[in-house]
Specification:
TIM Barrel, alpha/beta, about 325 residues, about 45% helix, about 15% strand
Length: about 325
């Protein structure tokens, strides 16, 4: 039997139709493969747990875990077509990746032994990454993501935190559109860091997905979410428990996490809410909130399966 949510059955909102996900939750993979993240065995188990829970949306980026987030996802998911992989390009590592690997292995060992080193690594991770919006760099970055993921196409590719001027100028979106036209990318979009860049992204008709931080108590994106839905742009919510503040413990996310996920998954204007965690227990708790009150069991599928939805998304792009 298939567990399905009412808003993904039958007559779906046009902006949500390409996803048709069994669960309106996705796994945020920013810490998979990182120095302070889980080892590959634990990260792989987390991805498999997400699949077991019915999650089929996975969010990553070319720089996450120095590329290891994409590599781990690729090893677990392969080229299977019942999952949607969303990646991002535009940010870059300050040091070439091959030079980082020996240092990363040593840093992981030392961080496991010293709280001071863990804090130093965490502080370094919080610093802004260098960015490159040149079309050739972005084209090469898309190819790099494809290699690490082991896929012939990335379902969704986003610009990773571009400023307003880059979006207005348009060459960066041109580069993603070129990749889409040759089949390397299914749908293109923007991962925005602020309302101004989100608004600039929505002004470009080629943008079909908008990812935004939707932290508790913040309302700067609310008006833009409505605009996105009117334009048929899919909205993906991230940092819904507070982002870095929740990870560092400055925000007591455990106190309100369950109700927060339940609240956001009720919203028909959000296509996906990301669960950014490295713990299987947190992932299960988020899904349990939905199973408890929002899910129903259908003896027969009332929606297209995810593979069919993926094909639909490409036709709509």
């Amino acid at each position: 039997m298939l567990l399905t949510f009412g808003r993904f059955n039958g007559s779906m909102d046009s902006a949500l139709a390409p996803f048709a996900l069994p669960l309106p939750l996705g796994l945020g993979c920013s810490r998979l493969g990182s120095v302070l993240g889980p080892d590959e065995r634990t990260a792989s188990a987390l991805i498999k747990t997400a699949l077991d829970l019915g999650m089929s949306f996975f969010d990553t980026a070319s720089i996450y875990g120095q590329g290891d987030s994409e590599r781990i996802l690729g090893r677990v998911l392969g080229n299977r077509r019942d999952c949607i992989v969303c990646s991002k390009v535009g940010q870059r590592l300050p040091v070439p990746n091959p030079a980082l690997m020996p240092v990363k292995r040593l840093a992981r060992i030392l961080a496991g032994r010293s709280h001071t080193i863990r804090r130093a690594v965490s502080n370094a991770r919080a610093q802004p990454m260098p960015r490159n919006w040149c079309p050739q760099y972005l084209a090469d970055a898309v190819d790099g993501s494809l290699r690490r993921l082991g896929r012939d196409q990335v379902d969704i590719m986003l610009l990773h935190g571009p400023p307003v001027e880059v979006l207005v100028e348009g060459e960066a979106i041109d580069a993603l559109e070129a990749a889409r036209r040759v089949g390397k990318v299914g749908i293109i979009g923007v991962s925005a860091d602020d309302a101004a860049s989100a608004q600039a992204a929505l002004a470009d008709e080629r943008v079909r997905v908008l990812q935004i931080p939707l932290r508790p108590g913040e309302t700067e994106f609310e008006g833009l979410i409505g605009t996105a839905v009117q334009k048929g742009v899919l909205v993906v919510a991230r940092e819904v428990l507070g982002g870095p503040l929740a990870i560092s413990g400055q925000v007591p996310a455990k106190r309100f996490a369950a109700s927060r996920f339940a609240e956001l998954c009720e919203r028909k204007d959000l296509a996906v809410t990301l669960v950014g965690t490295t713990k299987e227990s947190h992932l299960r708790a988020a899904a349990d909130q939905l199973f408890g009150s929002h899910v129903r069991v259908d003896p027969e599928p009332a929606r297209p399966d995810v593979a069919e939805a993926r094909e639909l998304s490409l036709r709509l792009a």
